[in-house]
Automatic annotation (TrEMBL):
Keyword set includes Hydrolase: yes
Protein name, UniProt field: Alpha/beta hydrolase
InterPro entries per record: AB_hydrolase_1, AB_hydrolase_fold, AB_hydrolase_sf
UniProt GO MF annotations: hydrolase activity
Pfam families, alphabetized: Abhydrolase_1 (PF00561)
UniProt entry keywords in alphabetical sequence: Hydrolase
Keyword ATP-binding belongs to the record: no
Domain of life: Bacteria
UniProt domain AB hydrolase-1: residue ranges: 53-152
Length: 241
């Protein structure tokens, strides 16, 4: 069952697509990285939809969704996603899957609505101390390119505010967590790659039941480079609920 929807929420209309059937299992909710939208999941969507129902969507101002006048920070995006789920009558529990910046959103969602979440998969997600600890290890060219990329949804300040929100809301979650870390990042020195994997490992501290998987042959988009790693992580959580 594929169902495309345009859902009216308070400030805009969001595009969402529900794929597969949940067969008594939790619905998988997927949130893409910064500037990305639902098509970012094309490489894994079919296989995941055989496990349970899956919701992919475009955040406001991206893909087929209308812009929103709300600030483009994680807390606002989480509120909009919550509203979308309510309006679309997609009931919890949810398994949340977030790639990159989408991982920031999904961590905040799990903190805000802990009773609605039964699993979390973070795919090369942005750590809250990325700017302070990681960015300084990279070349000036990389840092400049990084700072200039914030033109698709939130600006640089809003992105940094989202990381601050993540830091401020950080708490122990009582849900199974699988952290997927890209082991072959583009333009990373050995030292930077090692630090990246270490910072991904530290994310496990937010859960009493966490597991780190390093996708050895993947750059940032693990779902494209090693889709089976992403499918396997989600499958593990679906089957254990």
């Amino acid at each position: 069952m594929d169902k495309e929807m345009f859902i009216h929420i308070s400030k805009c209309k969001l595009y969402a697509k529900l794929v597969g059937e949940n067969k008594g299992k939790p619905t998988v909710i997927m949130d893409a990285g910064y500037g990305d939208f639902s098509k970012a999941w094309n490489s894994v969507l079919k296989e995941i939809s055989m496990l349970s129902s899956v919701l992919i969507y475009d955040r406001a101002g991206l893909g087929r969704s209308e812009p929103s006048s709300n600030p483009r920070t994680s807390r606002e995006m989480v509120k909009e996603l919550k509203e979308l789920l309510s309006e679309a009558k997609i009931k919890p529990p949810y398994i949340l899957v977030g790639h990159s910046f989408g991982g920031v959103n999904m961590r905040i969602f799990a903190t805000e609505y802990p009773n609605e979440v039964c699993g979390l998969v973070l795919i090369d997600s942005t750590p809250e101390d990325y700017k302070e600890r990681f960015l300084p290890t990279m070349s000036q060219d990389f840092q400049q390119a990084y700072n200039k990329q914030f033109v698709y949804e939130g600006n640089y300040d809003e992105f940094m505010e989202s990381l601050k929100q993540l830091k401020d809301t950080k708490q122990k979650l009582n849900v199974p967590l699988i952290v997927l870390s890209a082991g072959k990042k583009a333009h990373y020195s050995m030292g930077s790659q090692k630090l990246w994997n270490e910072m991904q490992r530290e994310i496990l501290d937010i859960s009493s039941d966490g597991e780190l998987v390093i996708a050895e042959n993947s750059a940032h988009y693990i779902q494209n480079d090693e889709p089976e790693v992403v499918v396997s992580a989600i499958k593990k959580l679906v089957e254990n609920t």
